[in-house]
Design goal:
Chain lengths: ~150, ~80
């Protein structure tokens, strides 16, 4: 089986049944594709002898052609999900690295609330305990100038 | 409920998680009664007392929910 095959089509019940080789498509891929169709169809999965059966029933009335189109779309979605899975696997380390850096950056950031210090040290804004406001000349006056 | 209907759905144990099925059954508990039993490789879910006044297919919606819940739970495991 190269890809999915149509097991049965029942236009009266608006249902199509597809069969997949599970060696070709892992469960994750089947779940991913089924998830995409869950809003349009009633999806029922089953398994038998290494094959996965997918029953799709339209939520609205569907003709035989529409059901076959649905089958084709499901096949496309399977390929899309398989590719997506492969890319994620290939780039797993890069994704983890970027996520780690993003989280580390977010955790180390300063928030505006950090500046809201509620403790009152009883100082006025004009107080200068470190002598920052003292002019350089006063601070480093020559000794000779002090002793005339 | 105006009408009692019964249906049996067989969900493969390798594809559907029991907790996910139970969660779906709880979601639809107001519209039908659910009984879940193991039957070989499947869970046989008997859906009875289906409220006929409900628009849409309760059994099929239940299956969709069971599948969705299974996917969500498998995602969390990863």
């Amino acid at each position: 089986m190269a890809q999915h095959s149509v097991e049965s089509v029942d236009p009266k019940a608006h249902t199509i049944t597809l069969a997949l080789d599970l060696q070709l498509y892992p469960f994750d891929v089947v779940y991913g594709a089924a998830y995409v169709f869950i809003d349009r169809c009633y999806v029922l999965l089953d398994k038998t002898a290494g094959r996965c059966l997918i029953h799709l029933r339209g939520k609205t009335e569907l003709s035989e052609k529409e059901l076959l189109d649905l089958s084709g779309e499901f096949g496309n979605e399977l390929l899309s999900q398989a590719l997506r899975r492969k890319i994620v696997k290939q780039n797993q380390k890069i994704i983890e690295e970027i996520t780690t850096q993003a989280i580390a950056g977010a955790a180390g950031g300063t928030l505006p609330t950090d500046f809201l210090d509620s403790s009152d040290d009883g100082m006025d804004f004009l107080d200068d305990p470190l002598g920052i406001a003292v002019p350089w000349e006063d601070k480093f006056k020559k000794k000779s100038a002090e002793q005339p | 409920m105006s009408q009692a209907q019964t249906a049996v759905v067989r969900l493969h144990r390798g594809l559907y998680m029991q907790q996910a099925i139970k969660e779906a059954a709880n979601t639809f508990a107001d519209f039908a009664s659910f009984k879940i039993v193991r039957d070989g490789e499947h869970y046989a879910v008997t859906v009875s007392d289906i409220d006929a006044e409900v628009e849409g297919d309760v059994v099929a919606e239940f299956c969709n929910f069971a599948l969705h819940n299974t996917m969500q739970r498998k995602k969390k495991r990863i």
